[in-house]
Each structure stands twice: as C-alpha cells, then as structure tokens.
C-alpha cells in the first residue's frame, strides 16, 4: 500500500509540474542565481528541521505514553504541528529572499 501511495504521489508531482511548467519557468526567471540558491537552501533546511522535530522530538514525547492509540494520536499531532510551524517559517523566509516573488 505504501508503494502505491509513493508512486501516485510521484505521478501527481510530475503531472502538476508539467501542467504549470510555463508559469514556474517565468517565475524562476524573475529570480537571480543567489535568490534561487537561497530558496533551495531554505527548503533543505526546513525539511531537515521538520524531520528532526518529527523523528526525534516526536519519538521522545510519545515514549512516555503507554497506550498505543494515544501514542499514535500524539505523534500525528506532533507531526502536524511541526509541519505547520516549518511551513510558516519557510514561507516567511522564502518571501524575504525572493522579494515577494515566491511565497503566499
């Protein structure tokens, strides 16, 4: 089941990238090389920090919970919190790096 989800996710990513390739290309042409490197580095750092929060922080926090169903719920809450925090910080950083071209 996990393989099917991974394959469908990759297919969806390729489809969306292909569909919006002209808009993405026009957006990236507005940025300098330094801005592109900064945005790329920001994404890598955000993914790494989210991984650390979810993997190490989540496992540490749920290790104190004895009930399995409560452990699962707590881990999901920790993952959603970490992802939302990292995405908000990433959005702010990317908007500042790109002078408002990227970011919501």
TrEMBL record:
The keyword Transmembrane applies. Keywords: Membrane, Transmembrane, Transmembrane helix. The chain crosses the membrane at residues 6-21, 33-57, 69-90. It comes from the Bacteria. This is Uncharacterized protein.
């Amino acid at each position: 089941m996990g393989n099917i989800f991974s394959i469908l996710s990759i297919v969806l990513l390729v489809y969306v990238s292909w569909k919006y390739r002209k808009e993405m290309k026009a957006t990236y042409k507005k940025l300098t090389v330094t801005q592109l490197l900064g945005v790329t580095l920001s994404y890598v750092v955000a993914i790494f920090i989210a991984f650390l929060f979810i993997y190490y922080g989540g496992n540490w926090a749920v290790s104190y919970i004895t009930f399995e169903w409560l452990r699962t719920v707590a881990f999901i809450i920790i993952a959603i919190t970490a992802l939302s925090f990292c995405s908000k910080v990433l959005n702010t950083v990317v908007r500042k790096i790109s002078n408002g071209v990227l970011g919501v």
